[in-house]
Amino acid sequence: MLAGIPLLIVPFILYNLGLAGSFGQAEGADIWATQVFSMRMMSGGVFSLTVGNLLIVVALLLLFVEIVKSTRTSNASIVDHLLSTFVFVAYLVEFLLNTEAAHPVFFTLMVIALVDVLAGFSVSLRSAGRDLNVS
Questions:
Q1: How far is CA 66 from the centre of its chain?
Q2: Which H or E run contains 69?
Q3: Distance between the two ends of the chain, CA-based, in angstroms?
Q4: What residues does each domain of the chain span?
Q5: Model confidence over 83-92: pLDDT tens digits?
Q6: Which of 28, 38, 52, 104 could be bridged to 32 by S-S, CB 3.0 to 4.6 A?
């Protein structure tokens, strides 16, 4: 049952929880610019990871899982693609209507959701074409 739920809903929910102040940030602070950790590199530069970067990395890992899920050939994959499309539409609506969603992190998450929809349909169409037997 849970296998049919699009995983890219997780970053969407996490972003909205961050907007609601569920992570304990100060009023008006940009939670996505908060530094998680930094590390001095051998080159002398400093690598720093922010909460926004971490959320994007999580979304990319979930995108990989979603693309692997899209290679299934069953009736459940059709429902999965439909739900992924709904997730993308939710991203798009929030991006267009919510001023706090006009943020580069949210835009990147929305593009990742779009890639999920396009890749899912593309993989399904390619695999469906290979399953077609002509007598």
A1: 10
A2: helix 51-69
A3: 36
A4: 2-129
A5: 999 999 999 9
A6: 52
